[in-house]
């Protein structure tokens, strides 16, 4: 006996509603934000308590903390135990004291001395896990001061968080083939095929995904990125990159974007990219 047309319509609508509810009910992944800046310009509009609440709302349980100047990271570290005790803070030393350092830091001996000082004293002593994010292009990587920074990172088992073109990235590995590098934005526009070649050649290269707007195609995870994530599931990290204050107002949207395409991957791969890769490389366990 055939079901009445009205019953068919009801069953169809019920099926659609059930599927939509099931998709919505998928628990969001725990996130480690591996590209976070708490710069001085943001602090009036976004005091530490507000920033820590933003993390909580987006299911962010860990952050790679950097700031310009470095005392912003210290503010978050000090406020987190009371305001957001579930958050794990992994501080990096930023190479900029102010905006004037952006174009000269890589050849400034004062920056080398600042890195050494920040590592040895202050609130981050004994907790620093890396240097950066820093901006570096082409032959800028050939300065003696930058070579000293790479050597300092190697000596102290620190990661280098490099916002760089491929030429500068390759020079880092020429200075130290075993350098541990987080490549900010995965090179912005470097083709996925080239990213795969670099990952195969450099096993300690991690790729951070902020501003890679080509990950999705028509709102869905692209075939190229799906293949890359499936081949190298242990090599990617997520990031918000709140380099200007306006990005803090978009934080929830940024994390929702990640959650949408991560949900298209097998759950174990999604978890690796969302937080487990960060747990592994930093030797931490998120709450």
- Regions with little confidence, pLDDT below 50 for 5+ residues: 1-24
Strand tally: 10
Give the overall form: globular
CATH topology: TIM Barrel
CATH architecture: Alpha-Beta Barrel
Mean pLDDT over all positions: 92
Proportion in helices = 40-55%
User: Which CATH top level class fits?
Assistant: Alpha Beta
Distance between the termini: 55 Å
Helix-strand makeup class: alpha/beta
Q: How are strands sequenced across the largest beta sheet?
A: 1-2-3-4-5-6-7-10
Number of domains: 1
Q: How would a textbook summarize the main sheet?
A: 8 strands, parallel
| Beta-strand proportion | 15-25%
Give the oligomer, counting copies of the same chain as homo and different chains as hetero. single chain
Tally the helices.
11
Q: Taking Cα atoms only, what radius of gyration do you get, to the nearest Å?
A: 21 Å
Quick overview of this protein structure:
With 287 residues, the chain is α/β, with parallel strands linked by helices.
Q: Your description of this structure?
A:
This protein has helices spanning 5-24, 48-57, 71-83, 109-120, 144-155, 166-175, 192-201, 223-231, 246-249, 251-262, 267-282; strands at residues 31-37, 60-66, 88-93, 130-136, 159-164, 181-183, 205-208, 216-217, 220-221, 236-237. By secondary structure, it is an alpha/beta fold. The chain has one domain: Alpha-Beta Barrel (TIM Barrel), CATH 3.20.20. The strands form 2 sheets. It has an 8-stranded parallel sheet, sandwiched between helices. Strands 8-9 form a two-stranded antiparallel sheet. Strand 4 (130-136), helix 5 and strand 5 (159-164) form a beta-alpha-beta unit.
């Amino acid at each position: 006996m055939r079901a009445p047309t009205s019953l068919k319509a009801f069953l169809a609508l019920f099926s659609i509603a059930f599927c939509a509810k099931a998709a919505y009910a998928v628990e969001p992944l725990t996130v480690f934000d591996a590209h976070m800046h708490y710069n001085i310009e943001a602090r009036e509009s976004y005091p530490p308590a507000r920033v820590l609440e933003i993390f909580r709302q987006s299911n962010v349980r860990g952050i790679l903390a950097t700031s310009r100047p470095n005392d912003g990271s210290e503010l978050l570290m000090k406020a987190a135990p009371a305001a957001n005790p579930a958050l794990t803070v992994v501080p990096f030393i930023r190479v900029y004291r102010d905006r004037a350092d952006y174009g000269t830091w890589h050849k400034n001996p004062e920056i080398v001395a600042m890195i050494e000082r920040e590592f040895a004293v202050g609130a981050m002593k004994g907790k620093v896990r890396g240097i950066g994010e820093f901006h570096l292009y082409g032959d800028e990587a050939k300065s003696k001061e930058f070579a000293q920074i790479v050597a300092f990172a190697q000596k102290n088992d620190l990661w280098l968080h490099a916002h760089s073109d491929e030429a500068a990235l390759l020079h880092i590995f020429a200075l130290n083939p075993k350098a541990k590098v987080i490549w900010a934005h995965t090179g912005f526009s470097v083709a996925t095929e080239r990213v795969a070649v670099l990952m195969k050649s450099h096993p300690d290269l991690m790729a951070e995904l902020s501003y890679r707007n080509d990950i999705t195609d028509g709102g869905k995870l692209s075939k190229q990125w799906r293949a890359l994530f499936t081949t190298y599931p242990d090599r990617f990290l997520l990031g918000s990159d709140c380099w200007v204050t306006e990005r803090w107002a978009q934080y929830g949207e940024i994390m929702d974007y990640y959650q949408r395409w991560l949900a298209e991957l097998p759950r174990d791969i999604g978890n690796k990219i969302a937080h487990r890769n960060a747990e592994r490389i930093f030797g931490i366990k998120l709450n």
